């Protein structure tokens, strides 16, 4: 049997990792500034993470949600305290797309409405409901076209008000920072107005923090820069440093009923142990503060007092969620960074390089990347 090929793969296979370093079977060393789509939040094979997960596996790897699991309640308490949402409740699932599916379902239950409003360039996942609120027709099959989704331009508060005024929308879903689109931030004023309009028209506000959460922006969740409190928050990627898990943080105004939500694998013992280990490291090693500090260092290097880097059309992002929009003549730069300088980076289309490294990234490693960048772009050899 062959794999069902849906990704174009580089001819590189990492077999070992430590912090922000990866090695292939032949011993070639790479620096990981992408973290496997923002998943590796505390570095590859962090010793505390390895010890906690290994110990849990030796005790009990899985049992169903038909019994008590104290790891779940501990995770909910710890996540609530560190995020500032200790009065919310937590539903655990397996992925970001699943978290968004459950968030929208919950909003529909709570309001009795069917429609969801989303934004241009949004990405919320590839499962049926999540891809329905994703602004990319190429990945939506006819089956996913429910007719229950509206789209408006990010930042157009007038369009939001016109849509919500009809009283048909269960929820508005918005990313804390749009990742797949190329690192686009809703302004703080826009988020505050969005909160106000949702309250006025009886729609719930869902903050998708799957890529932008867990400290990546320099706050626990990116929307916290604006001071708003969404009704529902979704999280996943960096939550367990590579072990599949997702979470839905739910306002106390939304009351649970048996049968609303359910899952087989969500919140299993191994996943919860991994997620608790991540919170240990984030807190004990002050990784949110480190993300803010190293992110500021990147911004000063690429868009500081001397102006925008000559290779860039725009620098976007907060903390360690960075979008570097290239000028046309540097369109081949990402491949050169990988194959010549051994830096893994991400992309958003042909002109945007995304940096989504572990929150453990040091200024020294950042400077090595910045130096390689300048060497490759200074003579326009990236054509």
Question: Which structural traits does this protein have?
Answer:
383 residues; alpha/beta; 7-stranded mixed sheet; 4-stranded mixed sheet; 11 helices; globular; identical protein binding; PyrdxlP-dep_Trfase_small; pyridoxal phosphate; Aspartate aminotransferase family protein; Class-III_PLP-dep_AT
Could you characterize the architecture of this molecule?
The chain is of the alpha/beta class and 383 residues long. The strands form 3 sheets. Strands 4-10-9-8-7-5-6 form a 7-stranded mixed β-sheet, with helices on both faces. A 4-stranded mixed β-sheet has the order 1-2-3-14. A 4-stranded antiparallel β-sheet has the order 12-13-16-15, covered by helices on one side. β12 and β13 form a beta hairpin. The longest helix is centred in the C-terminal third of the chain and has 17 residues. It starts with 13 loop residues before the first strand and ends in a 6-residue tail after the last helix. The model has no long low-confidence stretch (mean pLDDT 96).
SSE blueprint:
Blueprint (H helix, E strand, L loop, with lengths): L13 E5 L2 E4 L4 E4 L2 H4 L8 H13 L10 H14 L5 E5 L2 H16 L3 E5 L8 H5 L16 E4 L4 H8 L4 E7 L12 H14 L2 E5 L23 E4 L10 E5 L18 H16 L2 H17 L3 E2 L3 E7 L2 E6 L6 H7 L3 E2 L1 E2 L4 E4 L7 H15 L6
Parallel strand pairs: 3-14, 5-6, 5-7, 7-8, 8-9
Antiparallel strand pairs: 1-2, 2-3, 4-10, 9-10, 12-13, 13-16, 15-16
Helix pairs in contact: 2-8, 3-8, 6-7, 9-11
């Amino acid at each position: 049997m062959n794999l069902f090929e849906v990704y174009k793969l580089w001819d590189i296979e990492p077999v070992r990792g430590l912090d922000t370093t990866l090695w292939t079977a032949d011993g070639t060393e790479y620096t990981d500034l992408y973290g496997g789509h923002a998943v590796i939040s505390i570095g590859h094979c962090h010793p505390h993470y390895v010890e906690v997960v290994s110990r849990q596996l030796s005790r009990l790897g899985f049992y169903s949600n038909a019994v008590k699991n104290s790891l779940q309640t501990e995770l909910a308490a710890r996540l609530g305290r560190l995020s500032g949402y200790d009065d919310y409740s937590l539903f655990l699932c397996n992925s970001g797309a699943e978290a968004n599916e459950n968030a929208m379902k919950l909003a529909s239950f709570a309001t009795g409405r069917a429609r969801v409003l989303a934004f241009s360039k949004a990405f919320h996942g590839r499962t049926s409901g999540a891809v329905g609120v994703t602004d990319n027709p190429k990945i939506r099959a006819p089956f996913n076209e429910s007719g229950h989704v509206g789209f408006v331009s990010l930042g157009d508060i007038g369009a939001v008000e016109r849509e919500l005024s009809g009283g048909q929308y269960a929820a508005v879903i918005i990313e804390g920072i749009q990742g797949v689109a190329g690192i686009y931030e809703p302004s703080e004023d826009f988020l505050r107005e969005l909160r106000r309009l949702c309250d006025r028209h009886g729609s719930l506000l869902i903050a998708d923090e799957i890529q932008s959460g867990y400290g990546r922006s320099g706050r626990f969740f990116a929307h916290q820069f604006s001071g708003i409190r969404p009704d529902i928050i979704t999280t996943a990627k960096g939550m367990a440093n590579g072990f599949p898990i997702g979470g839905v943080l739910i306002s106390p105004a939304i009351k649970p009923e048996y049968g609303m939500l359910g899952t087989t694998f969500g919140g299993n013992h191994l996943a919860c142990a991994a997620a608790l280990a991540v919170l240990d490291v984030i807190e004990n090693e002050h990784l949110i503060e480190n993300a803010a500090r190293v992110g500021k260092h990147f911004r000063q290097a690429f868009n500081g007092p001397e102006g925008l880097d000559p290779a860039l059309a725009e620098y976007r992002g907060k903390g360690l969620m960075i979008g570097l929009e290239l000028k046309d003549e540097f369109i081949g730069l990402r491949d050169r960074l990988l194959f010549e300088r051994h830096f893994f980076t991400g992309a958003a289309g042909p002109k945007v390089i995304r940096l989504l490294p572990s929150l453990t990234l040091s200024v020294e490693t950042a400077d090595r990347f910045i130096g390689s960048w300048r060497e490759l772009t200074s003579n326009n050899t990236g054509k």
